[in-house]
Amino acid sequence: FPVTxxxxxxxxxxxxxxxxxxxxxxxxxxxxxxNHIAIYVGQGMIxxxxxxxxxxxxxxxxxxxxxxxxxxxxxxxxxxxxNLTMDTLAQLPFAVRQRLxxxxxS
Length: 106
Prior knowledge:
Blueprint: E1 4-5, E2 8-12, E3 23-26, E4 36-42, E5 45-48, E6 56-59, H1 62-65, E7 68-73, H2 86-90, H3 94-103
């Protein structure tokens, strides 16, 4: 601790201590090895891609929190709800922006 992976540092192993933009490494199936990754996009949602399915936005609930093995954060990316801008939202896929806007109407 801290572990560095391509510029990302291990922020925590606490699945409840996440920030927008964090990469959540997860162990899927009967393993303790990280074999899946999701991005925390805020408002209690993650963006990820399961094998054989389209990328999707899912609630970051206990089902996913239980699988988190590490939370990685890039040190140059500090973001909070207070400074989330339209430029940041514009970088997300259209379908993700639409779902987030429905959850948090302006």
